[in-house]
């Protein structure tokens, strides 16, 4: 019998999804699971954007342009201009989710064995994309104590080798929620210019900034040929299932190379391009309501989490994630226990174990990522569950409260 | 300035799409282009399937399961049972187009440097996916003279090395339209069993067989662990823009590995999964009308093409493509000339140069692929255009009427 590849063997499991079978088993036992493990918002997709899909008028569901519909790319230039980012449509390539944008960046800019420096913890699926592209992620450790601020320039420089080709950030960050300051972006610029590196910037959560304002990598001067933006409508418009993202750069050679990858897979999905295009026309105050909601959830989450004995949860500046340190020796074992053994009044809570967001073995072992994608009532109940669970868990280090 | 990767440099351009800029320029000059270059059917997407999308009733466009909606996978087992193929939903993974299914197969079953034996000419984007996966395609030449029948077993065996991991076929074939017989599938089975290889079978055009009936690789006995089916709804239901395909195997290890790749990119597109699921419920005679239309087009195309002096076009048994040999020294130059220099009564025709479908340099140089995706009237006009063009083209070898 032919065997699978080493690549398939070594491909990491998603820390966000690998406990899914335990959650399914819990549900089958009648336990209701609060999902804080995955960034699937409960916010409704804007009705006007959904309606645009309902009212499509074509009779043939054709391939779109490999770079996405021209009309959509044109419209996106308006979207970015709101952030004083000037683009022309040829600099925008519509991708199948932000996922494909990240993969295209790795494929088009790096060869197998080349390296990307990435602050850890980082978006876990980057490990998967790196495995697919044969690229090595060189982590630079950021720390829960200072809320996962950008590590100092020296920490990046210590990781530079002759195979380093790019720095990859997610801003505001998934999984930490950290919002990088303009000054931190300027630091990254220095590193990229000094070592001639690409700056890959995943800005999926641009609109969701609570403490400070967002500064895009595309706004950096002198970095036209270095910056590649990976974007997506998944979180912005609560449209995760659409699988529409964008790969944006002013580097013409990168665009030309990426176009070949885009052509090989023919086109991005047609229906959700309609949704994305319509979403650009939402009233500009659309995000105010969503942001207010996320902000209230964040405040609730951080307060309630830090009130649990032994828990430490820094206050994230953006996105809708927080990393927290739990008073347990092994958060993954605890997360599994939550699903397999625990329930409180018929409920339990699902978290993403922190270790999956780190490349350095051993790090994040007592951390979890929480996505505040549930309404405040559910969120509060979920955290109550967690508190009771930590009190009941045999291996909890601190017993008090 | 950071440079692109060698992978990006070496990534082949799509032979189907690389002449697009010339077509755009022709259009701007007011010339109408008959598109025989791309497999974008003019057949309407079934209204019932489109309506299912129009009537979606969710308020949040959520991620689906990474393997696709359970209800859709369940429904697909019914679809395959019509061909006496027995599957359970866990053996089906919904992919983002057939493209992703091919890429998943290469990623999960082969390591960089591993080899796939493939009859050439072959679906051109396989070269792109192979470049992404770092996999080497070892072509076995099939010949226009015998309509591109499966090369003999010895030709395959001559290509086997210690890095060979799979054989890849497309049945019926894109670009040749050749329909492999059951006996030819049995030959491939022998090769795969003898050398312990995967059999990757792209069966996107299963319903479109005109001469003989389709025999699926999944119907081969003793091949449960060897066969991986790459499928798609793009051509079946004229739903190319949906980007919905399927990766199907009974090999559990391959499914488990592939699931990790599927989880990394989160989920296939949600809207078109609704379309795919609804399409399974179309009346079973749905394909009769479509097939009758394609058959009439094939007959027209083959007859008209072979009536052009110096042209040879074998009669394809399935799909909606034909390869033809033209009396020109360089078909790619001719195809470009058609768009740049030629017009007849305000029209020209776009073809896909044959060389892009071959891996062996020099082969297919005087061949083109034609997709009969236009109605008979347009098809006839397109071939008339081609005939006049060949007569007028300075480098045409045979001048007679």
Automatic annotation (TrEMBL), chains A, B:
Q: Which PANTHER family match?
A: AMINOTRANSFERASE (PTHR46383:SF2), ASPARTATE AMINOTRANSFERASE (PTHR46383)
Please verify whether the record's keywords include Transmembrane helix.
no
Which keywords label this protein?
Answer: Aminotransferase, Pyridoxal phosphate, Transferase
Please indicate if the UniProt record lists Protease as a keyword: no
Q: What is this protein called?
A: Pyridoxal phosphate-dependent aminotransferase
| Top-level lineage group | Bacteria
Domain Aminotransferase class I/classII large span(s) in chain numbering? 33-383
Q: Needs which cofactor? A: pyridoxal 5'-phosphate
Q: Which Pfam families match?
A: Aminotran_1_2
Family according to the record: Belongs to the class-I pyridoxal-phosphate-dependent aminotransferase family.
Recorded GO MF terms: transaminase activity
